[in-house]
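Two proteins, back to back. First:
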Amino acid sequence: MNKKVLITGIGGQDGAYLAAFLLKKGYTVYGTSRDAEVSGFSSLGKLGITDQLNLLSMAPHDFKSTLTAISKVLPDEIYHLAGQTSVGLSFEQPSETIESITIGTLNILESMRFLKLPARFYHASSSECFGDTYGLPADEFTAFKPVSPYAIAKSSAHWLVKNYREAYNMFAANGILFNHESALRPARFVTQKVIRSAYEISKGSKNKLNLGDLSIVRDWGWAPEYVDAMWRILQADKAEDFVIATGEANSLQEFVARSFAHYGLNWKDHVIQNTQFIRPNEIPWSQGNASKALEKLGWQATKKMGDVIQILAESQGQQS
């Protein structure tokens, strides 16, 4: 392959899996964080790939920092995965969320335009942009109805990518990814909380699991499969936007019930619904239709919610 790739946010779940995926493809992989010298990069360590990467500092919200890093690498492909990643936290830190996601994306696009860099650019858009899909799977023609600062920031960045693609003829594409999980997810994510609590209770813990609205419906997939889709999006003949999802919708209650059942437990004995964990503007239903990805990229999710729970539950024993 002998191509250079730059991954922003390489220390996160998707960045780590993407880096491992691209190394196997023969890429020379560069990755950024705001301060590469002090970042732990624990996810990269868990995958055993840290020594195979070129890590550098870059603050996407700062144009000079962004331009300097991209000028240094001059990559063939850029995957922009950096930015504040928590919907819940975005209500507490709206300004930081908007700046890190929207301004960060703009600075990369502007750097590419300024340098006349013929790189292919992937932006991590989000299913949160759709808001409530009202019991139907969203596709690339579904209107955006963002209901959180995070979703508003992602929607703005999504349209920036489309604008630069059309205005400057750049190969810039959005991957609209629905929920995708792995053992590398931070502990604050609900899937991790559920699996970890079920495991600990099965080992004798008397703690209760506090959760918010259990009726919300999500489309849960497996993260390592989704980074394959990211790569395929940049290998297409032309830049387009793609929904990446399993197409299967399940409620959080069902996710909880099946997770506890894996350990022979009845979730109702161990879970408390707590209004403290309900977001100010929650999305009742989020589901995707990835038929375009299958038709044009040959990509299709093979692991759905039940598989995700099985793999996450098995990883708990390995971590302990």
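And the second protein:
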Amino acid sequence: MAKVIVGMSGGVDSAVAALLLKRQGHEVIGLFMKNWEDDDTEEYCSARQDLEDARAAAEVIGIELLTANFADQYWARVFENFLAEYRAGRTPNPDVLCNSEIKFKAFLEHALRLGADYIATGHYAQVREFLGEYQLLKAEDGTKDQSYFLYRLNQQQLAKTLFPLGNLYKREVREIARQAGLANHAKKDSTGICFIGERRFADFLARYLPKTPGEIRRLDDDRVLGEHQGLAYYTLGQREGLRIGGVKDAAEAPWFVAKKDMEKNVLYVVQGHDHPALYSERLAAEQLSWIAGRPPHTHWVYAAKTRYRMPDAACSIESLTAERCEIAFATPQWAVTPGQSVVLYESRVCLGGGVIL
């Protein structure tokens, strides 16, 4: 049996991952990661309660729980990039960087120094070795599959990673936890920014990016409709928080963000979910990362996701270099957002992807 260090967050998923590995006979140690300290207060910081929940779970499972602080690495490798992307008018996905730089780099390196054979997490994904190569697969539970956030993992990382929940459904995980007497079996899933928590996002962002108000204009005729608080606070396809209403000669359909003009500090909006300006037939991406260590073929038919939880969209890679690729979709895709990731699949196998330009 192997020595496995499990990243335990205080949630039910990582607790059950540790429990299952212990039942399989492995030497299991839990490790709680503290990665955010900048504005930890009683109002916002959930890390203290999460640590207590992880300790309680480890005690029930019968394993040791260690702690590690990667706050400096998180700030340098994840959060500075997060802020830079917002300043540039893009909408980053911090979970992607958090996984590749913290959970499967800083944590993995720390675990190996502690003598671990493998690390494990509560992610819903699967790893398999096929013809001498490690593949990242979608989880059995399609509603919880997290392979989208893991597309930057490489062969060395996957070779040392276990995903014990990959073949389970969330309801099964909660039932395993309940039967084992884990107090967190009904704990609500976290939906906040990776390691930062569930803060009111606009207020949080305002701590680091000053508000730069400007005009909101209708894309179709350049008519001024209102004022925005700063382009960093809006994302393509956004409907809430625009504060546009009662526009003369306009239909009652909702407004959506369609474009940002960073040079003029103008936010452009359109009316109606199905407005043509919200759809894209193709995209370009950079910062490419391929799990196999080599790029896929061009002009083959693949499936792609341009945001988490969206259905697979048929596509092909029209051009590909080491730095950039262009992807064409069989049907136009809604609100393709710069800064988000496009992730490619061949059936259940995640191939990798890149950051949308």
